[in-house]
Design brief:
- The chain is mainly beta.
- It has one helix and ten strands.
- It has one helix at residues 15-29; strands spanning 2-8, 41-45, 49-50, 56-57, 74-85, 90-100, 111-115, 124-131, 136-137, 141-142.
- Strand 9 and strand 10 form a beta hairpin.
- The longest helix is centred in the first third of the chain and has 15 residues, at 15-29.
- It is globular.
- 23% of the residues are buried.
Length: 143
């Protein structure tokens, strides 16, 4: 198992609207994410991560209501997301790294988007991503 610390950072704000449009397609082909909040948690990791084998990748999906010819694939990797609040209390939930293949963040190995059930994040100072897999630690953590 690999555990990587990260801090919450601001994204572009597009995931909330995009997930509202995308989630019906995702649930149809990958129903285990059904209870996820329609927004993502953006983490800047302390170590770079390269995912070679996601748990699930969609086929091409035409998900955008305006750009109807836009097709995109999405990959997901199962994780446990641990959050630690300012009082030092921690919580762990099932979550998924959400990897839109057309995202401008995709090439950055220090950046991941996570979807999970609704989590109170106002007092969270630290997050840890737990990936239950063998890994190699080279310049990147490779799973």
């Amino acid at each position: 198992m690999v555990i990587i610390e990260g801090k919450i950072v601001n994204g572009y704000g597009a995931a909330r609207q995009n997930l509202e449009w995308q989630m019906p397609y995702f649930i149809e082909v990958f129903p285990e994410i059904k209870g996820c909040y329609l927004g993502s948690i953006n983490l800047e990791l302390v170590k770079p991560l390269k995912i070679l084998m996601p748990d699930f990748t969609t086929g091409p999906i035409k998900w955008h209501p305006v750009h109807i010819n836009l097709e995109e694939r999405f990959s997901f990797i199962r994780i446990k997301l641990e959050t630690v609040n300012s009082a030092g209390n921690n919580s762990v939930v099932d979550a998924w790294i959400y990897d839109p293949h057309n995202s401008p963040h995709r090439p950055d190995p220090f950046y991941v988007e996570i979807i999970a059930p609704k989590i109170e994040l106002s007092n969270v100072g630290l997050c840890r991503v737990h990936i239950d897999r063998d890994y190699k630690e080279q310049p990147f953590i490779i799973v």
